[in-house]
Fold these 3 entries.
Entry 1:
Amino acid sequence: MIAYLKGILASTSADAAVIEVNGVGYLVGASSRTLAALGPVGEAVLIHTEMLVGEDFQRLVGFASAEERDWFRLLTGVQGVGARVALAILSALEPAELNRAIAAQDKAMVARANGVGPKLAERIVRELKDKAGGIVLGPAAAAQAMPIGAAADAVSALLNLGFRPVEASAAVAAAEEELGAGATLDALVRLALRKAAK
């Protein structure tokens, strides 16, 4: 699994960017907000990624922040919300706005996104009300709480196994505290799974 790409922005289009990493160009789908945040072509960029794999495709989707990637994962967990619709929502609303809309059950705000009708917007705010609590932090808190390195990959692994963001972060933080900062990804994931199961 590819957690992020760090390289040179080779080109952008309406819904994707090409990031060159060590001579390989990765095509990464993205929201308009992420594409705007990448900066000019030819500059160094870091983009958080999610790999989508289906029967007949493999696709990378990129995000300006890990927070936006977490929202993408939550959104695509809602029935009827595919990658395209999730990116349309993230193009229309930044993560803090999306958090407020879901907390307030404001389906009209979510329905501003292209391809999101009233029924789908209502399903999104209803289903995500209990799941979204652990994602959005203020910038200062996010800087302190954002896991890096093996810890970030361990959180990602737990999210892919279906844990909620707040549960995954807490379990990995507890595992890292017990194992120390130099713990391997494998050890972190195994201990975090035991702690999350308690």
Note: Residues 43 and 70 are 25 Å apart (CA to CA).
Entry 2:
Amino acid sequence: MDAAASPDTSGIRIEPIAAVHIDSFHRTLDVVAREKKYLSMLEASPLPQTREFVMGMIAKGNPQFVATAGDEVVGWCDISRHFFPSHAHRGNLGMGILPAYRGKGLGRRLIETTLRAAQKSGFARVELNVYEDNARAIALYEKTGFAREGIVRRAARIDGRFIDAISMAFLFDERGFS
């Protein structure tokens, strides 16, 4: 997309997700999922399941933020706390941004906001897996303090092709995050 057709990101707000965002979040999730390059899901779950997920995240106090342009969600970042009590200090990060809004610093804003909220909520560690061919995301995660921990071989199979993933983590006590 050329600069003239690229949307202005100066008015984009980063805010906690709320019920009012669910329909737009669902549409954005579906667009990113259908690219078949970034997410484990290949299309968004049905809207009622997405609504249940979001409302569950809110009820549990898990950090979930959206980037909004006007009333439309153009990106998100969330951290789901692990279920087992012995792992409750850990969370898994998920995020996505609509194609027209990528490469403009929005991902960094979303991650940093979500990590601050995770730290306030008592997380000690945030984990993620990123497909090894997603160089832009890997660079973003490294810039925000995530460290590579290993390779998950054949982590995904999309359209008959296996894709390895890089396992990464952010440890608050090692990163001096504030």
Note: The CA atoms of residues 75 and 96 lie 5 Å apart.
Entry 3:
Amino acid sequence: MTATGTFLPKPGAAPLPRMIRAQAALETRMLLRNGEQLLLTVVIPSLVLVLFSTVDIVDTGSDGSTVDFLAPGVLALAVLSTAFTGQAIATGFERRYGVLKRLAVSPLPRWGLMAAKTCAVLVTEVMQIVLLTAIALALGWSPHGDPLSVALLLILGTAAFSGLGLLMAGTLKAEATLAAANLVFLLLLVAGGVIVSLDKFPGGVRSALELLPISALSGGLRDVLQDGAGMPWRDLGILAVWAVLGLGAATRFFRWE
């Protein structure tokens, strides 16, 4: 105590950026310690990449190498598994067990928690992308295109799926979130252009599927990394709309308990 009624350190909340960094670091450690999460986010995309690149199971509709078609789609799958499915399930059970209820009485605002969770997802995705890229290169992948376009697609894709995952976790019961998140994951794996080209679908269905965030992410990554295209503005626009809608709805309707 330095003077009457004055205490050091000064009581009160830490600066908001520091709170978000601390929560993001905690969320990252929790993600990496969860075996089920690692199975979903690392093992499954890696197996999909290796299996479908080495065994002639699915007609990708591509004239080039199979791995050149699959690698961008698997990168999109990694974002989906981490930012949406894994995060929705983990956050849903945190809400059920009262973890979020305790965080609700802390100075960390609701949007700050979402920002911290999204940052943790981005850290995990960096490790995923490094691993999947190494596997794809070992299988003969020859990527092209602008790294900036790839980074923008991955960041907007992460924001879009993170918002949707948090919206689901913050509004449904944990068991419902578990079932719904896994079901959506499987449906988008098949119908999102990840391992099956959207050209295989009828015209009307394809037009609707192209508006999904997974289709925009996998299609944009494929245009850049496989075909060497420029900035995929249409796909970036679709992802930006989903990101704004998802994060906005999550901020508005997310319930702590």
Note: The first helix runs from residue 16 to 33.
